[in-house]
Amino acid sequence: MRDNELPAHRPKAVLSYIQDYYMHPDLVIDISDCMDEKMQAIQCFASQFYNPHKPSDEPETPISSPDFLEMIKARARQYGRPAGYSFAEGFVIPRYFGIKSLFDLD
Prior knowledge:
Structural class: alpha+beta
Oligomer: single chain
Helix content: 10-25%
Number of helices: 2
Mean pLDDT: 88
């Protein structure tokens, strides 16, 4: 191994983030405390999203439509509600992974 290489790593689980199309999540993670920061981070790429104060001549895409940012927030609320969170991120998993105790669940 060279000095700038990291040792091989095998993850215990692989979670796939659900993007903008609806999928039933296998797992949700509470993001209630950082939802505002998430929206601010997304909007750092302002040229890609709808801006009512600066109309674009570019063709509309699914993420440049007026309702896309609202959909992101609504989806996080939708994923969070059944788990008792204000907002959550949804993930799908290709295989089951376990916990040792039901008391470890929220």
